[in-house]
Amino acid sequence: MDNRYHGNLEVSSAPHLVSPVNTAKIMGMVLIALAPAFGVGIYQFGYRAAMLTLVCVAACVLFEYLMNKIMKKEQTVRDLSAVVTGVLLAFNLPSGLPYWIAIVGCFAAIVVIKQLFGGIGQNLVNPAVTARIFLFMSFATEMTTWPTARGTGFDTVTSATPLGQLSLGGADSVSASNLDLFLGNVGGCIGEVSACALLIGGIFLIFTRIISIHIPLSFLATVFVCGFIWGGFDGAVFHLCAGGVMLGAFFCATDYVTSPMLPLGKVIFGIGCGLFTILIRLFASYPEGVSFAILLMNILTPYIDRITEKIMFRVPKKAVEGDAGNEK
Amino acid sequence: MEKKVRSLNSIKVSHEKKTASCITEKMSVPETVCISMAQHIGAPCKPLVAKGDSVKVGQIIGDTDAFVSAPIHSSVSGTVKEISSIRSITGGEDQVIIIETDGRQDLWQRIKPPVINDQKDFVKAIRASGLVGLGGASFPTHIKFNPKNLDQVDTLIVNGAECEPFITSDHRLMLEDTEYIIKGILATMKNLDLKRVYIGVEENKPDAISKLKEAIGNSGHSQDIEVKVLNSRYPQGAERVMVYEITGKPLNAGVLPADLGILLSNITTIAFIGQYLETGRPLTAKRITVDGNAVAEPKNIIVPIGTRIFDVVKACGGYKAEPRKILMGGPMMGRAVYSDAFPIVKNNNAILIFDGPQALIPEETGCIKCGMCIKACPFGLLPVSLAEAYERKDIERLKRLQVTECMECGSCSYICPARRPLSFMHKMAKGLLKEVASNNG
């Protein structure tokens, strides 16, 4: 092969090297970060939690595959984003939910919310969060039938969640301690019960630089401050650890596609999520507000991005005057 | 003056500097060389020889009266076989002089060390040497060393960062030609009346750093010359990044370092000055790194300018695998050539040859708006927004987001998990802006 003329080489623009991290690897890291919460979910709710999660993952991947086939698009199953959506959706469901309802949720998440808007990167709102809200509205009874967690020590089949107790009977009727909430010895959705497990996963994502600290920190800080005003230190910890705040702050609100890209925007987004969460929890008729808060902020994200971009890149005054007519 | 500045955004790329310990070899003269007349930014040279002429090493074979230019010298002794043209990397036609070598490498009789009394002589000698910026830009050095505000320029930054993966030719130069570096620095300081010199070197070259420090100590100029150890991150070696990291002065696009009182030169350029002042031999050979997974024996090698890539590869044990992509320069900013018949030009510092998967960038997937490109951009631009604005041909937004500040370092494209050619889109966007500007008169 020596000294032979090679005249038909590949040409492309620089750089000719790319980072080893691709979309699939990022999604894989998110899945690893979700593993501790999955473990706690299985411990608290038994094999049904594992089965429901597997069903959701399988359904999401299948819907993703079929939609790409039908719409004659590049196959995107391998990027693992559908797996993450499946896991996140399952984590937002009570473990006793009938499988078929979960599959309906997966259909809403992947087909309607993600693929019909253009697939990965194009969806306006977080598929898992929005699908959960859809199921919550449509199957209100099934979605609020909470199997008793093993760690609570109760021998009933179902029991209320701490936020449910709060909503019905006020602060005095909450039976779980803050430590139980932190560890996950409470009723609730599969993946949201253990604040500790989610915190471990979230910190892992921050340290591996998969997510930046802005959204979780501003989200949690807002919840903490509001909780503190509501019920002192105990109240603040209660609101941080109860319900879906941890899952939402580290895994749902930080979804790249549906959250702002710039640090300032991320902070605005996180504060908004925290405020709406507390607002709904304390004053609205639903016991939990994380999903609604994230959905609302998802919708605001393009505006937040646009505003922060304009703040970062202010045009010199002269240029603005000259181009005023062209500005939309 | 000495204040700690916040580092600009940068990225971590794998170094791949496998040839760092390879002592530079000297290539034997190939049968023919193909010397391009366009080896610098500015007007190309016109051939001064004709077919059949015999030439010697160091003889001027191309020159022009244009202001931005540098003469071109023969790198071999032999006979001019043909004056023709080749399709250049950028798509234009370049005139080339093809010389059949006689292997004797006789020196041109007019070669002698220049006599220098003042700055004018110095600049004149540098032009005569054919020197251009050897770090990659190939801007004629004599113009850079003759700024309008020379009396305000007091600092020289010598760029020995070598932040591109694979390339180790500057590293080897720092180890092997240390005395030429010091001589070049001292001559430049003296003739341009500079007060302060910084040599910027990435921390991944500890042997070069200690060698330079030792040589500076021996020269007795340790008050004026300082080695600045830089983080081993890309793109430390970019002019605007280096000026900021060393002096803390931001250097926007379109501003010359001289406007900030700084001259910045690549370390190879400076070492050549040292060598030229001693020997008088113009720029006819270049130390390059030959590496990549399709080369049998990766190494550092000094090659005559005009040697074609296939001859260089032959001197490096030949191809180990079918080459799919050949780069002139590093993988981050180097250019891919379409054929291995391309000749080495003055500013080449590496030839990288890849086969199979390493030659190809994986396919582009959908943007997930992760914002990694934003965190990678040294100048705080928003690559993802620029790409969107480019795709929509939104001229106003491109201007507002300052696409012209982009230096196409490629950090955003490198880091993008969706493999989008962001840097390339910025390049196209800048072209688009120029087009619009010229259409509007």
TrEMBL record, chain A:
Belongs to the NqrB/RnfD family. It is found in: Cell membrane. It is a multi-pass membrane protein. Its EC number is 7.-.-.-. This is Ion-translocating oxidoreductase complex subunit D. Signal peptide: none annotated. GO terms for biological process: electron transport chain; transmembrane transport. Pfam families: NQR2_RnfD_RnfE. GO terms for cellular component: plasma membrane. The modification FMN phosphoryl threonine is found at residue 161. PANTHER family: ELECTRON TRANSPORT COMPLEX PROTEIN RNFD, ION-TRANSLOCATING OXIDOREDUCTASE COMPLEX SUBUNIT D. It is an enzyme of class 7 (translocase). Its cofactor is FMN. Its main location: membrane. The chain crosses the membrane at residues 49-67, 76-93, 182-206, 213-230, 236-257, 264-284. It comes from Lentihominibacter hominis. InterPro entries: NqrB/RnfD, RnfD_bac. NCBIfam families: rnfD. Keywords: Cell membrane, Electron transport, Flavoprotein, FMN, Membrane, Phosphoprotein, Translocase, Transmembrane, Transmembrane helix, Transport.
TrEMBL record, chain B:
It comes from the Bacteria. The keyword DNA-binding does not apply. It is found in: Cell membrane. GO terms for molecular function: 4 iron, 4 sulfur cluster binding; electron transfer activity; metal ion binding. Its main location: membrane. Keywords: 4Fe-4S, Cell membrane, Electron transport, Iron, Iron-sulfur, Membrane, Metal-binding, Repeat, Translocase, Transport. It is a peripheral membrane protein. Part of a membrane-bound complex that couples electron transfer with translocation of ions across the membrane. This is Ion-translocating oxidoreductase complex subunit C.
